[in-house]
Amino acid sequence: MRSDPRDEELAKLTRALGHPARVAILRYLTQQKTPCCGDVTTCIDLAQSTVSQHLKVLLEAGLIERKGQGTKNCYSICVEPFEQLKAGIDQILSDHRTATQKQKASTPS
Amino acid sequence: MRSDPRDEELAKLTRALGHPARVAILRYLTQQKTPCCGDVTTCIDLAQSTVSQHLKVLLEAGLIERKGQGTKNCYSICVEPFEQLKAGIDQILSDHRTATQKQKASTPS
DNA sequence: ACCCTTTATCGTAAAAATACGATAAAGGGT
DNA sequence: ACCCTTTATCGTATTTTTACGATAAAGGGT
After folding, report:
1. Using CA atoms, how far apart are residues A38 and B89, in angstroms rounded to an integer?
2. CA B33 to the chain's CA centroid
């Protein structure tokens, strides 16, 4: 099996989500009415440079976007990749379900 | 912010999914009518011990389960954590949507 | 009882992720 | 023009992940 690009894509997204600090950051970004700013740092008990690094990971995975606004940078969530992620998981689930179905059909109790 | 257990949980699941080989393994498990066996190895171009290790990661995250069947071990997908994962992502999405809504309401163009 | 297959685990090396402080670049305010 | 705030990036140490071969344990077949 030569790694499916879909697998790479799904892995890229999940890997980016695969750290509690990054999940917390995302949750924080949603909960702010003003979906912005690097004062994320003030609420997450990590050094500023570390937070910046986590933001970069999320950014490179496409899960968030940056809008430079003067000396401050505002981050906001990108909906699309989340939908894509859900779709990827759904596909695994539905594949599983149809396979299970088939199996039951061919092996009636 | 003291790491929310929900964040830990979501991170645990996504981290387990966060490797192309593991996504491929999961996909393989779904596509097998007989959702079983460690002949996963034969189709994934990784050493047997490496595959076993990846299976262990998936196992420990609860994404799959093992059924010992004689000398062979059969693995199958657990639906529940996938649903949980989807729910976690959905929550982030819906939080984001409601926040965006609120913002629009208070700042009419 | 013997061997052979299957597969988890151990030991280990190499690569990647994580965290930090320090520094630099970029803008705002006065 | 100056300084001060904000924040990305650099350098680096530590930990974790990833991959492999070798070994061991467990069962099936004859």
Report:
1. 22
2. 20
CB of A79 within 8 A of CB of B93?
A: yes
DSSP-assigned letter for residue A55: H
Task: Look up the pTM and report it.
Answer: 0.91
Strands A72-77 and B64-69: unpaired
Q: Which chain B residue shows the shortest CA-CA distance from A40?
A: B1
Q: Which segments within chain B are labelled E, that is strand?
A: 64-69, 72-77
Question: Is A31's CB within 8 Å of B93's CB?
Answer: no
Host H or E run for residue A79: helix A79-106
Q: What is the pLDDT of residues B64-76, one digit of tens each?
A: 999 987 788 999 9
Residues A99-109 as b or e (16 or more Cβ within 10 Å = b): bbeeeeeeeee
